[in-house]
What does this fold into?
Amino acid sequence: MAGQFLSRRTDGCELRRDADMLQMGRVMNLTRRGVLRDVLGLMVGSGAFFFQAPSWAGVQLEEPLADSVRTALSSAIANQAPPVPEFPDTESRLHYLRWLGAMSERLARKLPDLTTRKEFLQTVWYESKRAGLDVSLVLGLIQVESNFRKFAVSSAGARGYMQVMPFWTRVLADGDAGKLFHMQTNLRFGCVILRHYLNRERGDWFMALGRYNGSRGRAPYPQAVLRAQKVWLA
It folds into this structure.
């Protein structure tokens, strides 16, 4: 129907150009825009698959891995330790709680449900620390990759918060790509993969972030993540 409105045939007849027809066209155009806004609003409100497309969806490239590397990564993925923070002393715990409160306030617009937000932040903190990554950088990466959408899917098929490519589940786990929509699984894969790339690039964040995104050596993506990181600094 939309195509008929946009490209109506005239069969050789002249189009009427009087004021009434122009006004009707304006009304129809506004109506279509209104319907589109309503549909997008319903999709956003559902919390499921919606298409405010992230600008930099990840496209990690499948590359051969040495057996020792594959074994180490697989072990890191398979570890079923729950994301429960442990602290050596009271001050460390208080620091974490202050961080949790501050980040929760900043994330409220993206994840309105308090329980979901707390579980997400606790898991990001745990998996980042476990992989030896800066939590603010991981949050910045998630913002750029998926804008904190659990069910985000890129045009290349990357999935979830950290836009992990499905081939990683075949290389490192049981091949079930659907698990990448599970919060802890997605965050664990993403953090382990990012750590792998950082190790491979010998600590060079610029190159590691580019490799994570499939744009190694190009500046826009690393710069976007580093800008986003500033929002999440404690």
Q: What stands out?
A: The two ends are 51 Å apart (CA to CA). Residues 190 and 205 are 15 Å apart (CA to CA).
